[in-house]
Amino acid sequence: MSRSVLVTGGNRGIGLAIARELAAAGDAVAVTYRSGEPPEGLFGVRCDVTSMTDVDAAFGKAEAEHGPVEVVVANAGITKDTLLPMMKEETFTDVIDTNLTGAYRVAKRASRGMLKLRRGRVILVSSVVAMLGSAGQTNYAASKAGLIGFGRSLARELGSRGITVNVVAPGFVATEMTAALAEEYQEKIKKNIPLGRYASAEEVARVVRFLASDDAAYVTGAVIPVDGGLGMGH
């Protein structure tokens, strides 16, 4: 049965891979994007997750096109890496507002319809950095760690209505962003990953597909690493 799915930040990288994986599984997928163009073959809605008005409008358009949203993937995120002594306050708060508060806005709006349906899947995209830490990323790590506490608390709130809430924590993923890193730095990173390589965006997407499926109906409040072993022990 085709479900209505919304993926934020779904026009590139991990978000696009997730959207395509769920569409391939037969779901009707809408993606939000802040800039550029919507991906071919997917229903795109321009949306800035730092605006509740934008988020509400995006859900309205997705619902008009595909029906009430049954699966939401809060993937939209930004980085503004700076060492803390040089970090301006807006550099910290901008990342929190997009990555953490943005997920709050998306999950809050999604929960309204899911509570009426008495079913749903909320999937939050965190990061290995949430548990491992990373110099120069105090803002990003705080936002991604916050998703874990937020998601687990929400799982307790919504579980009795048949709604699951889970967190995926990717490690280093082969994207345009990592491709731009110096080769020497990339090799240094890979030496710290037990599997010795980056993940593909599709490998992360397949874990999200599992969490969105009926096979994961009894999985909620979980934090699932997709990091090649980089963050194990945390």
The first-level CATH class is given as Alpha Beta
CATH architecture: 3-Layer(aba) Sandwich
Global Rg: 17 Å
In the CATH hierarchy, what is the superfamily?
NAD(P)-binding Rossmann-like Domain
- Portion of residues in beta strands equals 15-25%
Mean pLDDT: 96
- Structural class based on helices, strands and sheet pairing: alpha/beta
Measured between the Cα atoms of the first and last residue, the distance is 37 Å
Helix-strand sequence: EHEEHEHEHHEHHHE
- Poorly predicted regions are none
> What's the total helix number?
8
Name the helicity range: 40-55%
Strand segment count: 7
CATH domain fold name: Rossmann fold
Strand order of the largest sheet: 3-2-1-4-5-6-7
- Provide the number of structural domains: 1
Short summary of the structure?
The chain has 234 residues and is of the alpha/beta class. The protein has helices spanning 13-24, 52-66, 89-117, 129-132, 138-158, 176-179, 183-191, 201-212, and strands at 4-7, 28-33, 43-46, 69-74, 120-125, 163-170, 223-226. The chain has one domain: Rossmann fold, CATH 3.40.50.
What does this protein structure show overall?
This protein has 234 residues and is α/β, with parallel strands linked by helices. The protein has one domain (4-226): Rossmann fold (3-Layer(aba) Sandwich), CATH 3.40.50.720. The protein is built from eight helices and seven strands. It has helices spanning 13-24, 52-66, 89-117, 129-132, 138-158, 176-179, 183-191, 201-212, and strands spanning 4-7, 28-33, 43-46, 69-74, 120-125, 163-170, 223-226. The chain has a seven-stranded parallel beta sheet, sandwiched between helices. Helix 3 runs parallel beside helix 5. The longest helix has 29 residues, at 89-117. It is globular, with a radius of gyration of 17 Å. It starts with a strand and ends in an 8-residue tail after the last strand.
